[in-house]
From TrEMBL:
One of its GO terms (biological process) is aromatic amino acid family biosynthetic process. It holds the Pfam family DAHP_snth_FXD. It comes from the Bacteria. It comes from Clostridium gasigenes. This is 3-deoxy-D-arabinoheptulosonate-7-phosphate synthase. PANTHER family: PHOSPHO-2-DEHYDRO-3-DEOXYHEPTONATE ALDOLASE (PTHR43018:SF2). Residues 82-327 form the DAHP synthetase I/KDSA domain.
Length: 337
């Protein structure tokens, strides 16, 4: 339920209605801008009589929110959510570029890649330390050592780090050490992990599940937000379809759909969507044209020998060429990179 207040209503009027609704055992969420004042109501709203609410001073309208996601809903918060990670901004007019290897493999590897992607204009360093691999016999990541190496690469370049968490066991460490905590596609519906991660104060990058609908994806964001953390970045990374030529199918329409439904920033990972290095640049450009707030790109200095996802990783030289085009596209779209 949404209570649209008159933008000129007084603080007292807002407090009065807020108190009256909260007495019914629901939670309220105030969103105020220059031209609007909205009180979102979450919880069991069936017992609330909207006609009675209209009698309160300052109330313009009462609307029912059809979608099951509330805090993530643009009706609850009309303006874009903008996330500032030590000066690197995601959302609004900004374009964020997260680049780096699939897995952190060694100190030399991560530092060399971090330096080169920074030089080409990346705004974040990505790198997996804990890897969700399909086979238990594949490289599982350097785990905590990988996290230490990412911290060294951050110290060396100043790039904030994004890395995936797989278990609630490491939440404290990730909250302390990582700038953006990634929830991978395979864990998008690990509700316990979502609830726990929602208690942290770090931005969360939530990848779309392999076969998740847009609504399921937004409901996962809602889990994190309902636990108290509203700094969620959505990441479209391709979904399973009948097509097998590409690793997944990049759902470009998800970008404008999500931007209409939600105020959360949406970035695109063309690397995991495509599965092949030569598809990364065209899909990245398409994502920007479709309105994405940023990109996540796998870059490796020696893709043939990469311990994971070498076939979809682009070399630092190709990343530079791609970034020059992305910068021009960003300008065309009126975005800041
Ligand atoms: C990754 O970003 O390294 C990754 C494993 O991605 P996804 O969860 O989208 O498969
Ligand atoms: Mn990968």
């Amino acid at each position: 339920m949404i209570i649209v207040m008159n933008p000129k209503c007084s603080k007292e009027e807002v407090l009065k209605i807020k108190k009256a609704i909260e007495e019914k055992g629901v939670l309220t969420h105030l969103s105020q801008g220059e031209t609007y004042c909205i009180l979102g109501v979450v919880g069991e709203t069936r017992a609330i009589d909207s006609n009675k609410l209209l009698r309160f001073q300052g109330v313009d309208k009462v609307l029912k929110v059809e979608e099951p996601f509330k805090k993530a809903n643009r009706l609850f918060k009309p303006e874009d959510t903008i996330i500032d990670v030590n000066g690197s901004i995601i959302g609004g007019k900004n374009l964020a570029v997260m680049a780096g290897p699939c897995s952190v493999e060694s100190e030399e590897q991560i530092i060399e890649i971090a330096k080169s992607v920074k030089e080409s204009g990346a705004t974040f360093l990505r790198g997996g330390a804990f890897k969700p691999r399909t086979s238990p016999y594949s490289f599982q990541g350097l785990e905590l050592e990988g996290l230490e190496l990412l911290k060294r690469a951050r110290a060396e370049t100043g790039l904030p780090i994004v890395t995936e968490i797989m278990s609630t066991d490491y939440i404290d460490q990730f909250e302390r050490d990582v700038d953006i905590i990634q929830i991978g596609a395979r864990n998008m519906q690990n509700f316990d992990l979502l609830k726990q991660i929602g208690k942290t104060r770090k931005p969360i990058l939530l990848k779309r599940g392999l076969s998740a609908t847009i609504e399921e994806w937004l409901m996962s964001a809602e889990y994190i937000m309902a636990s108290g953390n509203e700094n969620v970045i959505l990441c479209e990374r391709g979904i399973r379809t009948f097509e097998t030529y590409t690793r997944n199918t990049l759902d470009l329409s998800a970008i404008p759909v999500v931007k209409r439904l939600s105020h959360l920033p949406v970035i695109v990972d063309p690397s995991h969507a495509a599965g092949y290095w030569y598809l990364v640049e065209p899909l990245a450009k398409a994502a920007i044209a479709a309105g994405a707030d940023g990109l996540m790109i796998e870059v490796h200095n020696n893709p043939q020998c990469a311990l994971s996802d070498g076939q979809q990783s682009i070399k630092p030289e190709s990343f530079k060429i791609m970034m020059d085009k992305i910068k021009r596209l960003a300008e065309f779209e009126g975005k800041i990179l």
